[in-house]
Structure prediction request, 516 residues.
Amino acid sequence: MKTQDAFATTSGSNTMASRLMAACVARLLPLLLLVLPAAVQAQDYTWTTNGDNTITITGYTGSGGDVTIPDTITGLPVTSIGNHAFICSPLTSVMIGTNVTSIGVSAFLGSGLTSVTIGNSVTSIGEGAFEACTSLTSVTIPNSVTNIGYDAFYSCTSLTSVAIGNSVTSIGVWVFYSCTSLTNVTIPNSVTSIGYEAFSGCTSLTSVTIPNSVTGIGPGAFQNCTSLTSITIPNSVTSIGYEAFSGCTSLTGVTIPDSVTSIEDYAFAGCASLTNVIIPDSVTSIGDYAFASCTGLTNAMIGNSVTSIGDYAFNDCGSLTSVTIGNSVTSIGEWAFSWCTNLSSVTIPDSVTSIGFVAFFCCTNLTSVTIGNGVTYIGGGAFQYCISLTGVYFQGNAPNLDSRLRVFGGDNSTTIYYLPGTTGWVSTFGDCPTALWFLPYPLILNYEPSFGVRTNRFGFIISWATNISVVVDACTNLTNTGWSPVQTNTLTGGWCYFSDPDWTNYPGRFYRLRSP
Prediction:
């Protein structure tokens, strides 16, 4: 069964309709303030006087158009624009006075703004401050701003460019979510984190440069940015979050720096134009669905520090022809490479101990698989419906097989090859015939229980071919050519056990094999 990938997410718990309804209800609040002693109305504003003799604007009753927030009211400085103050108002432009330091929650939500000038004294832009200002085309956030609240420019669908001041340290949750016209954004060096779905759904965004100050790219940060063709991830980033670039269907290339230690679930899922990925040695884990449905991916190199490949990690990468699995991987997850229909061969390194359920299911062009000596378990269907698979070559003992599904091939055309001297093999394995695998050179099996010191002897199994003689040479120093023959062995049945009773006479000894 082919499992469909699900890498789209919802926009959050607050729907646009519910927020606008709440906003319009809040529009009535300034009228209620008229009967309260703390509120005084003059001209087009309602406001309150704060305890420090400053003014907070709480509402707007004017006719709209171009508005300038005054520096003072009744001689007192206007320092803040209150929550919901201009909500759903018919403004076209606003200039925020030089004394204002904070813009409140949903202050301009749903208003008709086409432009806004934020004064150089503003330090904080509240949650949803300009949310759903669908006519707003550009924004310059001054250097004084240190905090941008979540949803601040959510669904500003006409916003084409944003300049973010160099005091902002984080771009938070949904700040520019679904700004579908945004083509350009400059992220300053002050920013250390890009939050949850910060630019998700910015379908016109074509390129992003992330500065070296950023250490984390949050979940869904650039999800479904369908026009994004390139991304530069700096060496400061240590993690690529859940769904960070999922659904970026135009992304053709990405360089993952050596600083990254984890690629989380769905990070690049559905990046259909991605053709090549190199995962550096710094990365230790590849999450579930990390590169699922990257249908244009042709080559994947997995670094030597990766210890686990998640479930569905490269599922449905139909163009994948080559994959290199690093030598620290211990487990290959369920469905990890299923439906990689152009994959022709794969080598499982010795570090791997388990191959997951249907891990290479329906890799229809897979002809050859080499499985390292560390594998002890293979899940059901791991190589099922690999209809071109003619040979599976085991370098170790026979592993345990999951009985839920047939493990190999689609019929009995697959042959299981095993090295002489390895154990657990019978005439059939996983319903496939078995045969000895004769290498073109002799091999020391260095993973067997018989390898190493046994009853005051040092020994190992030599594997090669039946009735062939092999000489074991030894030396004490690899920097010189002082090799001496120790023993000549005849490989009955393709293998023999060699032991050196004199090994205790040397502080250290090296061995090699050769023909007589």
